[in-house]
């Protein structure tokens, strides 16, 4: 009963922070509410890696011809679980690819806007999380409550008379702020877990990025 109240509390807080993440959090809470929840008594270091899929649509120009921006990263993680319920994660994400988005040169009220392209990329991010964990006989359920430093780049190119794009500059996005998430891990063996996570990587006035992550961690 106490666990179910905690699950409802977390789902409500995350829903207020970002509606889509709150919905998925609620689903995760339901998955584990019916099972026997135990503390994981394995303490010590763990490390792993993830592939992450980011929705960075909020960083698009209002004159972009596309409304969605999806980017991938490789995420390396390490942590220490120092009691039965709580650990600390440190993570580093590195961008895997970039994506070019065409800019609409005929936007209403923007007659001087030059036709071109914005090429978006995630350079890196660094996160640190408190990671409360509980588990049943089949899987591990955990929350992520922390802070992220995010660095991205938008390369600006103009379209010349020959139809080629020429770089004219770039803008850097450097933001930091609160980061929240929820995850579930399935036991592959006594030490290895397969994890799936949903995170609000960062939410500021300049960058609102939601993330789906899948990967493995190994408990030493």
Q: If you had to describe this structure to a student in words, what would you say it looks like?
A:
The structure is a single chain. The chain has a single domain, classed as Porin. With 220 residues, the protein is mainly β. Helix 1 packs antiparallel against helix 2. Helix content is 14%, strand content 58%. Residues 1-19 and 108-112 have low confidence and may be disordered. 28% of the residues are buried. It has 2 helices and 9 strands; from the N terminus they run ααβββββββββ. The protein is elongated, with a radius of gyration of 20 Å.
Name the features:
mainly beta, 14% helix, disordered N terminus, elongated, 58% strand, Porin, single chain, 220 residues
The whole-angstrom Rg is: 20 Å
Secondary structure tally: strands: 9
State the shape: elongated
Q: Under the CATH scheme, which architecture would be assigned? A: Beta Barrel
Main sheet characteristics = 8 strands, antiparallel, barrel
Mean pLDDT: 77
Element-by-element helix/strand order: HHEEEEEEEEE
Share in β-strands:
over 45%
What's the number of structural domains? 1
Look at the structure and give the CATH class. Mainly Beta
Order of strands, widest sheet: 1-2-3-5-6-7-8-9
